[in-house]
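Exam revision sheet. Question 4 asks you to relate a sequence to its structure. Input first:
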Amino acid sequence: MISGAATRFMADKMSAGAFLGARSWRLLPPLLFAVFVIVPPQTYVEVVARGWQGDWAAFYPRYVSASGGWTYPDGARLITPTYNHVWFVAYLLVYTLALAALRPLLKRAPRLCGLVAGPALILIPWLYLFAVRALLFPRFGETHALVDDWAAHATYFAGFLFGYAIAKHDAFFTQCVRMRHGALALAIGSYAVLIWAWATYNQGAARPPAWGMTAAAALREMQAWAAIVALIGFAHRHLRGGGVRTQSARRYLTDAIFPFYLVHQTIIVVAGWRLDSLGLPLWIEAPALIAATMAGCVATYEIARRIAWLRPVFGLKRQPPPAKQFEPRGDEDHIKREA
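Answer key, structure tokens:
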């Protein structure tokens, strides 16, 4: 949804050809870099943890040439090279290509935003997500294999298009602000019931009722969508505007999002593997893993943004944008104009 909104602001500024070129340049280099540089340590940890004997020098040529012969416990072959968590970038690239063809139709999308006004803001998206979860996920699952991931596409492509449609529809964000407290209560309540059901039926001897899985699907999607509405509402209410320091921090974090995403799972897997071998108690291991992940993400971003050839493969513009000069005069409107 966030990617769809960001895509809308970019697409409205340029022609279809320029838009496709810009998005491809933003997404394809990071995807290829991730497949051949960022993701391989995850696969190495995976195969070593399952008993493969060999060092990195023996592993990497097999990884890139798809000749490792590694298998999962069920006998399925581990396909390499792979994108692991960076499936999102591959999907987003495909969705962008589809969006280019749908742009003429989507110009009429704001007319549909009346369907998500008032309580419908919660009910209509929730009903759609619930239908996908209840009808498609049991049949197709979620594979991240792109070509057969129909339930995932029904969720993520719809979310991408929805974000594109509402990006400039102020009434949507205003309604999220109005409903933020109720949406937060719905999200927390749904999550609490799900946790109770999990503790009751997954950990105990009781068997869930026949309708239990359907109810769980409904609660899961209510928790998910209500949380999204609440987050948008609180962000729109509290994180807009602000002074020079707030604006500067947001610019820093906005640029950091993509590099953080690209490297976070590799850091988690490698650091977790090393920490696990130490046999530390959970109350030490968990904070250590979180701290290592944050430190690794920050360090990666700080290095990547300073090296010109690394910037494109981490999803950053070739040159950092020039710093804005703020001259606060006690006038909030002036600060907004400068921003």
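Marking note for examiners. The chain has two domains: 2-39+83-238, 244-338.
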